């Protein structure tokens, strides 16, 4: 590499790190310093900046439009940016606020439906779910989050992003009051947690190239291949399943935690179909709140990806903002 090329490389790296610092730390970190209503108003103003999360938002909008989920592109983009800012802000809120914040700003519909028993708690990469973990713990649950390992090269050349991702994993563990369970290699820890009558939290909307077992489902009017291993585990062990979502009121910043206890099932395909009915519903309800529009082509591939492709995958799915997919 020439001296000029080295200088350009250093400049690009510095620019990327500075942008990560702004997008992942400085702007969302205002939530730790200000009352939430004021912080949220500032985040709403910031969401009007077209250069924030530019690449991810451009890709996300194109995919959403292709699926008829973004009739007003400017409004959609502002809401998508706001959702990303709030999701990142929740890291700093979770580390600096007590459960009083939960009681004040989170509206709850339904019940977890499990008490002192092993269970599967299912959610999606939609809206901002951090405070659902705090609510589960406050409700007497002992959940373990299932997370993809972060040591497989996904953050090469992005120091701020790597530190942010590790801080987020620690924040989830603190919110749950339990260690996260890392994938791959999760089975011993997962089995032990279930034997102790604890709960497993999994984010199930994962592209087929991230998992070994998939099954066809209908999502947004299309046939897709979604993870099936954990629904099969729930059926084998007669685990009760609860689906949960944590939405955001884009006008006020209040949260809407919805809990759907589904009980135990004896048919994994039927259980998976029921789970993805909820996914389909929330994406249609608030399309801009789905974080993985930017990689939607991987969800809607014509055929499922083989287990061999999974084994050759160099790193877990990363949406560019520090969220890695949770293997299921």
Structure in words:
- The protein has helices spanning 3-26, 36-46, 54-66, 73-96, 99-105, 130-138, 159-176, 187-195, 229-236, 268-285, 296-299, 307-312, and strands at 106-109, 119-123, 143-148, 181-183, 199-203, 214-219, 222-227, 241-248, 255-263.
- With 328 residues, it is of the alpha/beta class.
- The protein has one domain (3-312).
- The strands form two sheets. A seven-stranded mixed beta sheet has the order 1-9-8-2-5-3-4, with helices on both faces.
- Helix 3 (54-66) packs across helix 4 (73-96).
- The chain is globular.
- The protein starts with a helix and ends in a 16-residue tail after the last helix.
- Mean pLDDT is 89; it is low at 304-322 and 324-328.
List the helices and strands and how they pair.
Layout: H1 3-26, H2 36-46, H3 54-66, H4 73-96, H5 99-105, E1 106-109, E2 119-123, H6 130-138, E3 143-148, H7 159-176, E4 181-183, H8 187-195, E5 199-203, E6 214-219, E7 222-227, H9 229-236, E8 241-248, E9 255-263, H10 268-285, H11 296-299, H12 307-312
Parallel strand pairs: 1-9, 2-5, 2-8, 3-4, 3-5
Antiparallel strand pairs: 6-7, 8-9
Helix pairs in contact: 1-7, 2-4, 3-4, 9-10
